[in-house]
Amino acid sequence: MSNSVLAVEATGIAKSYGTVQALKPTDLRIEPNEYYVLLGPSGGGKTTTLRLIAGLVRPTAGRISIYGQDVTELAPDKRSTSMVFQSYALFPHMTVEENVAYGLTLRRMPRDEIRAEVSRMLDLVGLNGYDNRRPHELSGGQQQRVQLARSLVLHSDILLLDEPLAALDAKLRKDMCLELKNIQKTVGVTFVHVTHNQEEAMTVADRIGLVAGGELVEQGSPEAIYNRPEKRFTADFIGENNIFDGTATGAGLDIGGRVLGLPTPAETGREISLSVRSEDMRLLDGEPKPEGWQALSGTLIDKVYLGLIGSSVVRLESGQDITVRQVGAMSSGEVGASVTVAWPTEAGRIHLS
Ligand SMILES: Nc1ncnc2c1ncn2[C@@H]1O[C@H](COP(=O)(O)OP(=O)(O)OP(=O)(O)O)[C@@H](O)[C@H]1O
Ligand SMILES: [Mg+2]
Fold it and tell me: Which has the minimum average pLDDT: 81-90, 136-145, 171-180, 230-239?
């Protein structure tokens, strides 16, 4: 019917464990060759979503198709998916080469073909020459790469990765992120990658789906999710945002005694939220509030210098803490000083829910 077959198309897919709704009825559409990341807090339903795609758990409701084929009733090994687990799960007694070759051996592929294929994959993940090592002779990052090679060698249409970099330290994780992205572009396979790490998600994803409370809260490109979050939850979870909750007065937001200007008018009487990124805020050092800006006074309660940027925390009279991040110069005020935080009105984003 349509000439654009989706890699994954889930309709009303849901999973309950007894009374726990791990995933509420959800629609999910992932494009071929897309690098899709499921991001969200612990217990939100990310792994459940991945396992539903893999067929490792059966949905309580809904249908799921992979490349146009309804796989809802299909066993995991009959699906063109392959899973990379968080734990390394390598066979400790086998060499790197044997580990990577394992799936192909089961498929009874001729020995010389296996050899060529394994060698190609080890090249791809940067482990050329490690063929004869055993897992305990490898670093965490190298073991992770072997796992990746072991999955990629099967040439599944969809690679499912559950927290694949969680065991790595921050620096190695960063390097592996860039490599994962490169590998995905090279092999042209659809990746669905689960993480609770925001930076990891922003680095690898073509598109991020934010999963929390058993719901797909919002999805979009990393840029869109960061700069134009639609939901309050997204603004709270992604980046460092200051959020004001209140009642719309048309052009403004009543936050209890104070009315803040909104970037665009909102329906009077409606409960809404306004978010402003910490890097869009400034501390006014005595100078007057610029035209078209909003300002609130408070007390400087913390100052942290983070290298390139300085971060200040200001406690408003309402008791709410506001984070201000500025490149270069730190606020000249001392902790305990009265200060004014300000931001351009148009830097605010309105959240209706
Ligand atoms: N086999 C199970 N039996 C009962 N409840 C389960 C089972 N698996 C998951 N759950 C529950 O379903 C919810 C979602 O779990 P899920 O593993 O999908 O979360 P997650 O987003 O992957 O979290 P994490 O980031 O901690 O891995 C949680 O409340 C969890 O306790
Ligand atoms: Mg999980």
Answer: 81-90
Return the residue matching tokens 């051996």: 105
pLDDT in tens, 287-333: 899 999 999 999 999 998 877 888 999 999 999 999 999 887 666 67
CATH 2.40.50.140 residue ranges in the chain? 240-351
pTM score, two decimals?
0.90
User: Tokens standing for 47?
Assistant: 């792994």
Measured by CA distance, the residue closest to atom 30 of ligand 1 is 43
One CATH from 3.40.50.970, 3.40.50.300, 3.40.50.2300, 3.40.1160.10 for 8-232:
3.40.50.300
Q: Which two tokens stand for residue 175?
A: 């390097």
The CB of 196 under 6 Å from ligand 1? The reply is yes
Rounded to an integer, what distance in angstroms lies between the CA atom of residue 322 and that of residue 144?
Answer: 39
3-state secondary structure of 265: strand
Tokens 């309105």 correspond to what residue?
350
User: Ligand 1, residues 13, 16, 47: which to mutate, most atoms within 8 A of Cβ?
Assistant: 47
How many angstroms separate the alpha carbon of residue 42 from the centre of ligand 2? Answer: 7
pLDDT-based confidence at residue 1 (cuts at 50, 70, 90): very low
Structure confidence by residue, pLDDT tens digits, 308-320: 888 999 999 999 9
- What tens digit of pLDDT does each residue of 92-102 get? 999 999 999 99
Start and end residues for every CATH 3.40.50.300 domain found in the chain = 8-232
75 exposure class (CB count in 10 Å sphere: 0-12, 13-18, 19+): exposed
76: nearest Cα among 89, 64, 87, 94: 64
Is any ligand 1 atom within 6 A of the Cβ of residue 17? yes
CATH 2.40.50.140 fits 240-351, yes or no: yes
- Ligand 1 midpoint to CA 47 (Å): 7
**Dist CA 129 CA 43 (whole Å):** 40
Is the CB of residue 20 below 6 angstroms from any atom belonging to ligand 1? yes
Q: Which of 13, 17, 87 to mutate for ligand 1's pocket (most ligand atoms within 8 Å of CB)?
A: 17
Ligand 1: residue of 20, 28, 161 to mutate (most ligand atoms within 8 A of CB) is 20
